Amino acid sequence: MSEHAPRKHTEVAVGILLKSNGEMLLTSRPEGKPYAGYWEFPGGKLEAGETVEQALRRELQEELGITIGTASVWKVTEHDYPHALVRLHWCKVFEWQGEFEMREGQSMSWEPWPPQVKPILPGAVPVLEWFAEERGEPFDPATIG
Ligand SMILES: Nc1nc2c([nH]c(=O)n2[C@@H]2O[C@H](COP(=O)(O)OP(=O)(O)OP(=O)(O)O)[C@@H](O)[C@H]2O)c(=O)[nH]1
Question: Are 65 and 100 in contact (CB under 8 A)?
């Protein structure tokens, strides 16, 4: 491959689980992964042949032990990390079934607005900006991470 070949995107499905009281689910990245200990929205990489919804359903089953209802893509972002160029497909999720089990030794937290946990993964920050816009509030990224 040429030194100047474009980097290939890693496609990632990410779930924004929202409770009726407005709280959102954040999970911490497990030990052994890049950015271990950072808070993120749960999800993971698409496997060959999967749609975003299928990948998200599989990942949340594997990582959290829950079965999600329908999920459709809300927005798409890209983030260029030293370890990967990722394309994040963000899905809002309002329905799920099952008891939460942290199957990868991660932590979970239902967070109010604005979220209190730190640090938050850089690639998740746009979501917080959109939520602030939806609420008509200013958002200062310096207050997180
Ligand atoms: N799940 C998740 N991934 C995110 C978010 N923001 C963000 O930049 N990413 C990036 O998207 C990629 C997701 O990969 P992952 O390591 O969580 O996925 P995975 O569970 O399939 O990993 P593995 O099978 O390689 O262990 C990582 O490069 C991660 O840094 C986010 O809010 N949630």
Answer: yes
